[in-house]
Amino acid sequence: MKLKITPRDKKFLIGGGVILGIYLLAVWVIQPVYAQQKLMDQKIQNKIQFIQKYYEILNQDSYYKAKRIANERTRIILAKKFLNETQPGLAAARLQKIIKGFALQSRVKIEQVRVEKAKLIDQMPAVPISMTLRSSLRNLTEFIYRMENSEKFLVVEEITTQRINKSNPEELKTRLLVSGFIQDLTFRPNGPKA
């Protein structure tokens, strides 16, 4: 039993085969190639955007140079606020010299000075000095004003004042704890430098 295929059936079979072939070609060949091409186009676009951003950053060179100069100026200004010495003993000596200068300008008599152990105040290495003064209220006020408005960053941590002479209430004996700061980021108060 032989099947008889008419020319009309032959056309339908050929047409169906062509349609099936085109469908298989589209699903198995063209669609993956199209998806791969779309993925490659996206990667190329991403690289183009990266290169554009890179050139935008490179073109901002003058902005970054100006920022670097401003940061350097700020660093210099801040460096002036700290005691120049990196060793606590040398910094304490420098702080004593600064305070004695303020005492002479303010007509305050320093009776006793004691260097305290170096410590950290808000993560900054500080050299505290305890001192006993004799002065009038006006001179003491001028002395503290000079310290707090100094070029160096000095902090009056503690102040205790008492009258010495009941007949002259202006004569005072004052105990101060003043701290100056060191710009040494490797300072450790209870151990060696890192």
**How large is the share of residues in beta strands?**
15-25%
CATH superfamily of the domain at 84-181: Ribosomal protein S6/Translation elongation factor EF1B
**Number of alpha- plus pi-helical segments:** 4
| The CATH top-level class label of the domain at 84-181 | Alpha Beta
Quickly give the CATH architecture of the domain at 84-181: 2-Layer Sandwich
Number of strand segments: 5
Task: Calculate Rg over CA atoms.
Answer: 41 Å
Main sheet, how many strands, which sense, barrel?
Answer: 5 strands, antiparallel
Low-confidence stretches: none
Query: Mean of residue pLDDT?
Result: 86
Overall shape: it is: rod-shaped
Amino- and carboxy-terminal Cα gap: 100 Å
The CATH topology assignment of the domain at 84-181 is Alpha-Beta Plaits
Helix and strand pattern? HHHEEEHEE
Description:
With 194 residues, this protein is α+β, with helices and mostly antiparallel strands. The protein has a domain at 84-181: Ribosomal protein S6/Translation elongation factor EF1B (Alpha-Beta Plaits, 2-Layer Sandwich). Helix content is 54%, strand content 23%. It contains 4 helices and 5 strands. The chain has helices at 7-59, 61-81, 88-106, 137-148; strands at residues 109-115, 119-121, 124-136, 154-163, 171-181. Strands 1, 2, 3, 4 and 5 form a 5-stranded antiparallel β-sheet that branches. A hairpin with a 2-residue loop joins strand 2 and strand 3. Helix 3 packs across helix 4. The longest helix is centred in the N-terminal third of the chain and has 53 residues, at 7-59. It starts with 6 loop residues before the first helix and ends in a 13-residue tail after the last strand. 16% of the residues are buried. The model has no long low-confidence stretch (mean pLDDT 86).
